[in-house]
Amino acid sequence: MTSSVAVEPAPMRTTTRTRRVDTGGLCLDLVATRTPNSPDGPDGPDLLATTDGTAAWLGTLNLPTPAAGLTPRDVDRIQVLRAAVDRLVRARLAGAGPDPEDVGHLNVCAAAPTPTFFLRGDAWARIEVPQPDLAGVLSVLARDAVHLLTTGEPSRLRSCEGCGLAFYDRSPSGARRWCSMKRCGERSASANYRRRHTGTGDSDSDSDSDLAEA
């Protein structure tokens, strides 16, 4: 991962984990741990509400937990970073300037060294250097946010038309409209289908277009 700050490569994401959405970025995955206006409820489930939930979420990204385990304070710290990243992303989407307080918090998090991993000499496996606290993980997430907000194509950073969740469109066509076809795209396609068959919707091409652009 290249960034405007000195960066060690972030740990690779697993390729088999189940994701509710495809955000296109680690920092956006962080924001997606709580989804406003979610089809799952008014505020959506919060994957970072507890130490166990936070540890499980970090595990799906191959990010380490502190050697002594997560504490409630760690949960608070990652939730504060999540809120700052969310506000900065929303400001970027709105074409507004960043809030200096959020920028300061992001930069403080990004300044910490990121976790270290080594390759074992006797097997194709990694050795994880124990982390004393959550600072290294917060640094990985914060540096990814710096990268996302300052590089790439700004027009590819979008809000899902279904739930409003932010995502970065990495599709070849650059025409994504949904955080996930299975989550919001299919709901929209189903709604269009029902409207057509009750005589209140648009043409059949609406649903086909939704499927193609998701």
Automatic annotation (TrEMBL):
Transmembrane segments: none annotated. Residues 203-214 have a biased composition (Acidic residues). Residues 186-214 are annotated as: Disordered. It comes from the Bacteria. Residues 156-197 form the Zinc finger CGNR domain. This is Zinc finger CGNR domain-containing protein.
